[in-house]
Amino acid sequence: MDHSLDPSGIPERITRPDRSPLRAITWQSVIGAALISSLVAGAYPYIVLKLGFGPNASVVSAFLGAMFLNVTAYSTRGQNRFLNNVIQTAGTSAASTAFMCVVAAAFGYLDLNDTVEMHLKIAPWPMFLWLTCSGMIGVVFTVIFRRHILDDPRMVFASGVAAAETIEVLDSHPSEARHKMRALGLTAVASAGVVLLREGLGWLPTLYLAKPYRMGFEWSFLNVGSGLLVGINVGLSMLLGTLVTGYIIGPWVIGSGIGDDIVRGQIAPEYWDRCQALVALVKPAPDQALFISQHCGLMQNMHAQKYFPIVVFWVMWPATALMVTATFTTLFMKWRSIAEIFQDLHIERGFREKDIPLRAVAVSAVCLTILLAVIQHAFFQMSYLQTFVAVLASLPLMLIGMRVQGETNIGPVSAMANALQALFAVFWPTHISSNLIAAGIAGNITSQSEGMIQDYRTGRIIGSSPQILTYVQIATVPIGAAAVAIMYPILIEKYGLGGDGLVAPTGLKIANMAVLLSKGIEALPEYALLATIIAGIAGIVVSVIRELSDRAWVGWIPSVTGFGFALILPGELNIPIALGGVAGFVWRRFHRQTYDRYAITVASGMIAGEALLGGLLIPLLAAVGVHIR
Length: 629
Hints:
The chain is mainly alpha-helical. The protein has one domain. The protein has 26 helices and two strands. The chain has helices at residues 27-51, 57-72, 81-98, 101-112, 124-150, 158-171, 178-200, 221-230, 232-255, 258-265, 272-279, 286-295, 299-303, 308-333, 335-341, 349-354, 358-380, 384-408, 413-427, 432-462, 466-495, 505-517, 528-548, 560-568, 571-590, 592-623; strands at residues 207-210, 215-217. The protein has a two-stranded antiparallel ribbon with strand order 1-2. Helix 3 (81-98) runs antiparallel to helix 6 (158-171), helix 9 crosses helix 24 (560-568) and helix 20 (432-462) packs across helix 21 (466-495). The relative contact order is 0.21.
């Protein structure tokens, strides 16, 4: 039995018919979409380069959109939810593309690494064209599988649900939703207060069970709220993944000496002795800190007993195989429903009126792929064949990313980028630049699909037209691309890359992966290949059991997606999600009536409060030199 969100709660809200007004596109929604998407996308590169991940753009955009419409469209309050869905979609789309500043950082790290011969700097204009084109491919690919993904009852898409609840509550008349507005406001304030105490004042440090492996509890209502939405099965599966990494795989990798081999493989031999001397310094000088960042790889982590980044270099291989085989097995077993998606000639007239015909989607995908091939050949000397392979391979990776996010509310963009890097290393092992470009293609397509499917979930709850949301998503991709092209060089000029500047951990991981894979499969850590094969088989077996058996105990089999992603995600993020899942289960079990009425609202407030303060306001203040702590 699946103990995630109750069927009487969310499902009845996600099957509403399309009831959006004919004029969802008004001057308020257009101007609001442009302003909010520019604001969110402009702030995103700083946040991502600093933290390695981005905040919940969907909920943030919905909240800001409601504020904008309460000023510019107050007379139509009660019907503004359709306009705000447009604004929220625009903000999510722009932020999804802006996330790809991690690839710009990967090229930056590669440029700083003089142990490789390849150095490539992407100028702002080529960066804009490249991200715009690849992002639009992600949009049109998502249209194809929209119904298949959203119709799967296991795909919750917690952020999309939270955004819809935020939009509906803030658009309702106070007399109609007084109690929900109060619950949303109180939980949002509480969530923001926790962020202020944690990030601003430093009064809520993470509680660790095994600090070297980042296994602990971070004070985060955002993650607790996500757990409340995704349910107890996924939450406990992620807890299990954390325990396996922190208590089994992690200590074994470090204790067996495999960790030392991983560290040595990241450092050029000529820098080994100097790195050993520098990482031992308590307070290295700025130039020494920069050298450590550029040349010493994971040695500093090993010296400081921060083992998790080292362990990730081993566990990422079986974790990725587990998620990939599980997703492909599920898709294969549902081949009939997927085949129906491509039967364009048999689509009902009513469906055509509110969605884009698949024939138009296919033509757009082909044209955009050809354009992307021309752009990459002209600016990056990437062959046309490499572009076509990268785009085709990104399609199944995109599906994996959407399913992972649907269950866990966390998008594995970097993991999917790494997966395509591994594929490219098989066919073009020495092409480091092509490897990074391929990572960018997979990352951008996956990022767009994950953001867009959340918007579709929000739209289905509200009753918006998916066709309108698709057009809005396409129109605002260039805003996110412009944010990367403009803001990345400005931020690096001001703060620097690595050392005491913007660390960009995701970009560093992608760059290190490209260098590692250029050395061939023999460069994989010891036993990683064997573990990958075993994990791949396990993903197939578990998925078959979950799909074929209707026994009650099947619902308690761990979520392969949640477990696999938790292996490579810090435990301090996973444990609060598990706590939220358990809390939701207990709440539903003992007070079903209030759970059905307030669970989504409470979770949405938890997500919105931290996303607004911790993900937008505090980073913006820091960017202009105002530090709360």
